[in-house]
Amino acid sequence: MQLDAYDAFLCDLDGCLISGSTVLPGAQALLDYAGERLIILSNNSTDTPHTLSARLKQLGLKAPPQRIVLAGTTALDHLGQTAELRIRLYGSGALRAYAKDLGLLLDDVTPTHILLTRDESFGYGELREIVRSLSQGAQLYVANTDESHPGADHVPVPETGSLLAAILSILPDLTYTVIGKPEAALYHAALARLGVGVRRVLTIGDNPKTDAAGAARLGLDCALIGPNHGEWSDLNQLMAAHAVIGRPA
């Protein structure tokens, strides 16, 4: 694997570039090296590209919103392609604002579709509501099935998949649609940003169940990093192994 052989890079966020509010080794080096060839591709379902870009800027990492593709907003984009939906969104204020900007109708009473994202206020009451709506025929969309993502000090942060698990404990035969990795929809959204002429794309991640499996489904190469599953401990080691640290985009 030679990094110079690739036209573009799709890099995961949590566990690769950052962990909580900590910038991980090699993050800046990869951004400097890849430049506009890099898309941050994340199952994040709390931020929008604009809020994440602002958060990364506070950490010293420059990543314009147009180079960020996230599961939560991609799911809303997908739902926005169908007219006359009534959506019950379980998610952050940023996602609710994004949905309204898209012109989506948010309906907490009689939804036709439910979108489940990482909702930090999700509790027993929300679980009862969602089970009732699903039992009445609403369709469930899920931003991602990750049970957790790496947080500060290596403490796992509960993710959308943990909320989904609670629903499935009650409705085990439920059919639902997943947008995030390892499903193809998120990758297609990212590849569309790269435009024509991009032939070889390297995905970079830390999770074999999402990053590696998703890349394999689309026939993309994947570099796994991290202390648990990766060939390289972090981005810094990956970049050093290919002697590209400090080189301009």
Automatic annotation (TrEMBL):
GO MF annotation terms: phosphatase activity
Q: Which InterPro entries match?
A: HAD-like_sf, HAD-SF_hydro_IIA, HAD_sf
Gene3D superfamilies in the record: HAD superfamily/HAD-like
Could you name the Gene Ontology cellular component terms for this entry?
cytoplasm
Query: Which PANTHER family does the record match to this protein?
Result: 4-NITROPHENYLPHOSPHATASE-RELATED, HALOACID DEHALOGENASE-LIKE HYDROLASE DOMAIN-CONTAINING PROTEIN 2
Name of the protein this chain belongs to: Haloacid dehalogenase
Question: Upper lineage ranks?
Answer: Bacteria, Pseudomonadati, Pseudomonadota, Alphaproteobacteria, Rhodobacterales
